[in-house]
Amino acid sequence: MACVDRFSAGGIAAALLLAMGGTTAHAQDIAPPAPPPPPVPAAPGPELDPDSPMADLPDFGVDWPDLATPLPGEQADATDPDAVVVEGAAERRYRYALQGVDGIADPLFLQRFREGSALEAHDDEPSNAAQIERRARQDVELLDELMRAAGYYDARVRPRIGAEADTILVTLDVTPGPRYTIDTVALPGLDAAGPRADELRGALTLNPGDPVDADKVVAAEDKLRTTIGSQGFPFAEVGEPALVVDHDTRTATLTLDVQPGGERRFGRIITTNDRVFDGDHAQDIARFRPGQLYNAADVDDLERAIIQTGLVSSVKLTPVEGEAPGTVDLSLAMEPAPFRTIGAEIGYGTGEGARIEGNWTHRNFVKPEGALTLRGVLGTLEQVAATTLRFNNFGQRDRVLTVGIAATSLRREAFQATGFQLFSTLERQSNIFFQKPWTWSIGTELVATDERDTIVGTGEFRRRTYFIGALPASLTYDASDDLLNPTRGFRLGGRLSPEVSLSGSVFGYARLQLDASYYQPVNDTLVAAARVRIGSILGAPRDGIAPSRRYYAGGGASVRGYGFQAIGPRDPNGDPIGGLSLTEFSLEARAKVWGNFGAVAFLDGGNIYTDTSPGISDFRYGAGVGLRYYSNFGPIRIDVGTPLNPQPGDSRIAVYVSLGQAF
Q1: For the CA atoms of 360, 363, 366, 372, what is the dihedral angle to 10 degrees?
Q2: CATH 3.50.50.60: does it fit domain 340-659?
Q3: What is the pTM assigned to this prediction?
Q4: Cis omega (within 30 of 0) on the bond before 188?
Q5: DSSP 535
């Protein structure tokens, strides 16, 4: 009759728990073993002398070395000078070795052994004989469980202890024996899944002939649970795996009880309260719609998206029986996070001056997700007071509606402008949690601005008032691997803004800009990056366009080494006048040098032109180096550049500090 072992799920995973300090479960025979014979009374012996030498212990399991020369901590027997007596209290260092596991033990097996090994835990400590012997026995039990978990049910482990110079060598000899295999996989109850039963059965990754491996059994169980939850069965129950091992045939039968619980389709999302937002807004965020087949992965995705709103500290979606037959509703429970935040940032750029920005936000001022932000900028060359109302997930996941008003005062070398702006934008955004390949935006702008510049021919100052209406739009394709710190891939983007201007007479024009960037890793620590930008304003002369709406080049996000907006044609006073077109490029070598720190070498170039056709002539070039600190919210950069072919009045050094890569 075959000897059969039956395992529960706890028994299957016992070896996995060992590595974490857990307890183990051993196989239990179905047929109980025969009772041991009654003990035989021992014959009376001589009275023991507590001072007499200890006799050898049979089957002690650890053979201590018999050396001709005593090791440290040992002493020669007075009655036999050539014998060595190992004192149990003598401490010495030891090392250990595994034998017989080559070709069997994978890195995970060895990791689990090291994490659970008593010998490994104390291998740098001097130890006495009793301590080493006890640790060796513990590791024998650990190896036995790990071998059984890998399917080697007949494995034998024997410890040997010998001398090596002035240390003790503990060798754990493993005889694996044959590896057991799966004979049958049974899934009782799965047929209740109807037409989907075969598909679910195929999701089980264990087949007859596969090794009896505890990791693979657990992985197969997890795969089945995941698959049945993604195929429309929200109330499915998968029992713990039961493994029946036949030692005569060296095979096993795996049984997983499955209760599908009936197919369901998504119904409503219901909330217990609306302190944050209601179920209708949660449905706007979800990637599934009512009537679609239930998928647990979609539910997990919705939980993550709700967390990313920043309005909740915890969220739980629980499937419940739907109000409509054949549906499953989701009960949404949320714990609100603090709605109000205060932020500030400090920046500096040569030509842009120093600036301090502060903001206060109530992130659920208007439900759902209507964030009110009051923003102020105080700088040497810029002052801003703005109010915006931003609706995240506006009717759809990651779609944002923003409306606002701003009062600004700018002082640049090219112009001075003071004005008001009303604006709105509807956009589909990427973020660091859900980076998207396609993003877009459409918007409106109404601008009233009073601006001062110079007459190019005479250099005289003049002041004009402009009223401008614009419909800006953008489209971007992002195939890079990271939003803030890309290391491979590319990006393509375009902007188009038809505008109408009133300054004495009404006329229209269009601003067009194209951007492309490419990222290529050279090795594990070095990334090459390149950027190109071209732009053109069509339909109006340069002098008719408000100075603040013209193209400029130079600065930390343009051609580094030059002051902000300092590149291009200039008036008789030496101040930039802007242009109708631009061309720029940047090349960077980004290297990780130590920990979270990196270094950058860059070469930038570009120019501004007074006609509508971007060119490649008379480029201004800048070069320099930068420092990067890669924080958990993106790289912080400091760039220092110098112009290679400066114009009169250009500074020899320009410094830029900001968050994120230059491009």
Answers
A1: 30
A2: no
A3: 0.72
A4: no
A5: E
When comparing pLDDT for 54 and 534, which is higher?
534
Residue 479: is its pLDDT beyond 70? yes
Are the C-beta atoms of 365 and 340 separated by less than 8 Å? no
DSSP states of 204-249:
----TTSB--HHHHHHHHHHHHHHHHHTT-TT-EEPPPEEEEETTT
Q: Indicate whether 29 pLDDT > 90.
A: no
Residues 236, 228: contact at Cβ < 8 Å?
Answer: yes
Q: With bands split at pLDDT 50, 70 and 90, how would you rate the model's confidence at 345?
A: confident
User: H or E stretch including 9?
Assistant: helix 9-12
pLDDT of 57 higher than 50: no
Q: Which CATH superfamily is domain 181-259 in?
A: membrane protein fhac (3.10.20.310)
Residue 467 CB neighbour total at 10 angstroms = 15
Topology alike, domains 181-259 and 265-336 = yes
- CA-wise closest residue to 137 among 123, 158, 168, 153: 158
Angle at CA 660, nearest 5°, toward 657 and 663? 105
Please give the Cα distance from 276 to 269 (Å, whole number).
Answer: 14
What are the tokens at 424? 């709105």
Q: What class has domain 265-336?
A: alpha beta
Cβ neighbours for 70, distance < 8 A, ≥ 6 positions apart:
76, 84
Residue 611's contacts (CB-CB under 8 Å, 6 or more residues apart) are: 580, 581
Nearest Cα residue to 528 out of 486, 477, 580: 486
- List 637's β-bridge partners, or say none: 628, 658
| Residue boundaries of the structural domains of the chain | 181-259, 265-336, 340-659
Neighbours of 229 (CB within 10 A): 20
Distances (CA, A) of 608 to 459, 473, 581, 584: 19, 23, 6, 9
Chain centroid to Cα 282, Å, comes to: 24
